[in-house]
Amino acid sequence: MVQATNLGFPRIGGQRETKKLVENFWAGKITEQALDEAAVKLRAENWKLQQAQGLSQIPSGDFSFYDHVLDHSVMFNVIPSRFRHLAEGHERNFAIGRGIQKPATETQEKVDIEAQEMKKWFDTNYHYIVPEFETNQTFYLGGNVKTVQEFNEAKALGIHTRPVVLGPLSFLLLGKAAKNSPGLDLLSLLPNVLHVYEELFARLAAAGADWIQVDEPCLALDISAAVVAQYHAVYTLLTAAVPKLKFLIATYFGRIGNNISFIKDSGVAGLHIDLVRAPEQLEHTNLAAALKLAEAAVAALGSDRVFVAPSCSLLHAPVTLRFEKRLASKNPELFDWLAYSEEKCKEVHVIAHALNHGADSVKADLADNARSIEARR
């Protein structure tokens, strides 16, 4: 059976709950415990919402209060020395992303600690916090690992998720050398960081995970043959080290091209490719066109080897149209053309259902989509 899945879900909340919580925490109106308790509820809502839309593989570990790359850095102990005097917790994490600026007082000198650099996340309007690596960088996991914790949260709700982790090569390639480590070759850190990935994946397997989604967006960039060879070596090692896990490598925002050669004989069980940005890898896509594209994949691979998902993580999309009541009443035609994350999950399910049970089983959905596409045209 073809499975409907997703690569990531917006963390802001349907009515911007996360944004409001974080701003209240910054203002000292709520405690760190209250922030965490509210996040548990938001994550549960996100998983249940995706489940309600018919997704059979739902991501976990994609939630963040600020930035998922920053969270990954902290989880792996990649914390600039200027922040190491701060106690572990949200205050320190936000300080890394925002810096610390305090005016001088009668009892204290002025404090001005520079934040880590922000950089555009590929060609989206989202910005990530650039990891800073040092020559003698020490990587390790703490006791309470975010990705494992969130997998277990979903498991307690009866939802078996696919954990999402930023891959080791993209983690290093998206970073930079710290000021105290000029000229550092970031890929020289690969052997040390791989030991921590092995430990993380082993903990996830022990918790009951069977699939792991490893995001490697740098595969869509123009990278050298030497780096592609590193991808092959890395995933041959990791898949052998944790044989209980099936690895889904996700790349998006472009065409993977010749970089796909890394996957041969690597032990990787699945590869997500972006057929919206680069449809030539297998048409702005309506459901009928998407179904046609997916049918070609099923014909080539068989239904048991095909997942249907959005082209990339929905992390940067709005959550749901359900609260856009003003737009629905003032401009129903425009409203009809829109699909936010919740609606996109439903569309993914419609395509998977059509592949498994025939187009007639979703005839009404396809007809409604065709009508909307024609009206927009």
Q: What is the helix fraction of residues, given as a range? A: 40-55%
Shape: globular
E-strand count = 13
Weakly predicted, low-confidence segments: none
The main sheet orders its strands as 2-8-10-11-12
* Major sheet details: 5 strands, parallel
Class by alpha and beta content: alpha/beta
Strand content: 5-15%
Query: How confident overall, as mean pLDDT?
Result: 92
Helix and strand pattern:
EHHEHHEEEEEHEHEHEHEEHEHHHH
Radius of gyration: 22 Å
Distance between the termini: 34 Å
InterPro entries: Cbl-indep_Met_Synth_N, UROD/MetE-like_sf
GO molecular function: 5-methyltetrahydropteroyltriglutamate-homocysteine S-methyltransferase activity; zinc ion binding
Protein name: Methionine-synthesizing 5-methyltetrahydropteroyltriglutamate--homocysteine methyltransferase
Pfam families: Meth_synt_1
Features of this protein?
two-stranded parallel ribbon, 377 residues, globular, 13 strands, 5-stranded parallel sheet, alpha/beta
Question: Can you put this structure into words, describing what you see?
Answer:
It is a single chain. By secondary structure, this protein is an alpha/beta fold. The chain is 42% helix and 11% strand. The protein is built from 13 helices and 13 strands. The strands form five sheets. Strands 2-8-10-11-12 form a five-stranded parallel beta sheet. Strand 10 (211-215), helix 8 (225-241) and strand 11 (246-250) form a beta-alpha-beta unit. Helix 5 (146-156) runs parallel beside helix 7 (190-207). The longest helix is centred in the first third of the chain and has 21 residues, at 32-52. The mean pLDDT is 92.
